[in-house]
């Protein structure tokens, strides 16, 4: 099977030119001007952008969490991702405290295998690091191609690890060539503030926000950065939201230390005023919470300063019925919101179209850096000969409106209802197959592959 894409504006993290792409089977086999190959299918991309398939390295599909499950399965979540130009996601396995990493991996395989439409991989969240877990780190890296390990400094009593476990895990992960990811907020401070607010009868969603002030994130980020400096383990802060936390990373650059930073699309474009309504604010109850307008400006600038390396989503959808679990108590509202389908178009529209970032920066933070940081480059994340033919053909001028009525995520509301975007995903190829065309998905459940990842470094 071969496909020739003609006359598109090809964009990578470093280049931008008009050309053709020739695809044989799953990979790109030629790039150039006026390519004269016989192909089974020819796609005219005149007037369109072509960029690498998006990679969202932070999603939660079918995840047991806060007494329920996130509502997108591997099928619905990866399909919705494809509709939005994201050809690969990295999901999180959660170890159950007292049990092995291996048993958690088997449980996640049970839900994912044969079900994904788009490609996927796993991070392993270590919630209980001890003498039994230690040898499993090497196993995950060497045998399973799972090379990143997530830790939570929050969710006390459920997922949180203490600093002793964190430092031990970092030493082991470093030794075997892995990377440590962190949800960096101070779990003890948050736990105290949550209980205090509940005791005072403060039960509305806004108290979720007020129980996780900026200092809880800044403090934990600083502690994490210091621990990675001490151990020498490559580090990656997930869903960073605010100026105080980014300053911890900025300070580390003064000693020539680099910690990777991910923010999420919602922290760039939504702010905490959304919590100032009654229970409706539950739609945006997530951890960390939305912040201030000043933090949005800091994050956009951080992208251009090279401090923020990745824009993900932390896609973790729940039906309204599930959000209602917290109608009388903000601490029982399942944390998370749906976004995997909207990330690329929102980032293009709010970032590139509005002049905040360049087109190449867009590709860098949405496609290329996730592939580089997580050990998949150049198979994924770029357009070059030999890369997987994961491509997005994008109309930079088409305007449309986001809505739960038209999205493909398995959830009955949108965090972006009525949002006008400029730029639309038109055609998506995944490993050489046309996966999305004319608003239709042309690949079946089971087409998505688990991608084994390589060892990583702290340089990209
Ligand atoms: O609110 C969130 N972020 N839910 C998903 C779990 C996490 O902390 O990433
Ligand atoms: Zn070891
Ligand atoms: Zn988190
Ligand atoms: Zn998350």
TrEMBL record:
Alphabetized CDD domains for the sequence: D-HYD (cd01314)
Post-translational modification: Carbamylation allows a single lysine to coordinate two divalent metal cations.
A Pfam match: Amidohydro_1
Domain named Amidohydrolase-related: residues: 50-434
Cited Gene3D superfamilies: Metal-dependent hydrolases, Urease, subunit C, domain 1
Cofactor(s) listed: Zn(2+)
InterPro entries per the UniProt record, alphabetical: Amidohydro-rel, Hydantoinase/dihydroPyrase, Metal-dep_hydrolase_composite, Metal_Hydrolase, Metallo-dep_Hydrolases_sf
GO MF assignments: hydrolase activity, acting on carbon-nitrogen (but not peptide) bonds, in cyclic amides; metal ion binding
Keywords: Hydrolase, Metal-binding
Gene Ontology CC: cytosol
Superkingdom assignment: Bacteria
Similarity remark: Belongs to the metallo-dependent hydrolases superfamily. Hydantoinase/dihydropyrimidinase family.
PANTHER family cross-referenced by the UniProt entry: COLLAPSIN RESPONSE MEDIATOR PROTEIN (PTHR11647:SF1), HYDRANTOINASE/DIHYDROPYRIMIDINASE FAMILY MEMBER (PTHR11647)
Protein name as catalogued: Dihydropyrimidinase
Organism of derivation: Epilithonimonas mollis
């Amino acid at each position: 099977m071969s496909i020739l894409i003609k006359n598109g504006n090809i964009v990578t993290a470093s280049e931008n030119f008009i050309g053709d792409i020739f695809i044989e089977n799953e990979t790109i086999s030629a790039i150039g001007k006026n390519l004269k190959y016989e192909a089974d299918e020819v796609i005219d991309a005149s007037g369109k952008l072509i960029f690498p398939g998006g990679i969202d390295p932070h999603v939660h599909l079918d995840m047991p969490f806060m007494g329920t499950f996130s509502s997108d399965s591997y099928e619905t979540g990866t399909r919705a991702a494809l509709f939005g130009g994201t050809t690969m996601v990295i999901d999180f396995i959660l170890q159950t405290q007292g049990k092995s990493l291996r048993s958690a991996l088997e449980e996640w395989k049970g839900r994912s295998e044969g079900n994904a439409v788009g490609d996927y991989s796993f991070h392993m969240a270590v919630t209980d690091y001890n003498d039994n877990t230690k040898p499993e780190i090497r196993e995950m890296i060497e045998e399973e191609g799972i090379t990143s390990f997530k830790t939570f400094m929050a969710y006390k009593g459920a997922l949180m690890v203490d600093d002793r476990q964190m430092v031990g895990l970092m030493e082991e992960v470093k030794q075997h060539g892995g990377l440590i990811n962190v949800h960096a907020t101070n779990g003890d401070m948050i736990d105290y503030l949550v209980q205090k607010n509940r005791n005072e009868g403060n039960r509305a969603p806004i108290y979720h926000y007020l129980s996780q002030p900026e200092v809880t994130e800044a403090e934990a980020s600083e502690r994490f950065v210091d621990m990675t400096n001490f151990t020498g383990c490559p580090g990656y802060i997930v869903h960073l939201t605010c100026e105080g936390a980014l300053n911890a990373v900025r300070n580390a650059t003064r000693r020539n230390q680099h910690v990777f930073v991910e923010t999420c699309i919602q922290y760039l474009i939504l702010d905490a005023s959304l919590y100032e309504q009654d229970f409706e604010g539950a739609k945006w109850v997530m951890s960390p919470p939305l912040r201030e307008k000043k933090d949005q400006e800091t994050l956009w600038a951080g992208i251009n300063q090279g401090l923020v390396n990745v824009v993900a989503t932390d896609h973790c959808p729940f039906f309204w019925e599930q959000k209602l679990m917290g109608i009388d108590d903000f601490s029982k509202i399942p944390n998370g919101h749906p976004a995997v389908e909207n990330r690329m178009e929102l980032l293009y529209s709010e970032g590139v179209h509005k002049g905040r970032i360049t087109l190449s920066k867009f590709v860098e933070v949405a496609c290329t850096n996730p592939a580089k940081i997580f050990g998949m480059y150049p198979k994924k994340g770029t357009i070059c000969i030999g890369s997987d033919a994961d491509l997005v053909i994008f109309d930079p001028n088409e305007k449309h409106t986001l809505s739960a009525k038209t999205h493909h995520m398995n959830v009955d509301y949108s965090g972006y209802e009525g949002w006008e975007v400029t730029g639309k995903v038109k055609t998506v190829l995944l490993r050489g197959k046309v996966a999305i065309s004319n608003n239709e998905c042309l690949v079946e459940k089971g087409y998505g592959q688990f991608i084994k990842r390589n060892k990583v470094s702290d340089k990209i």
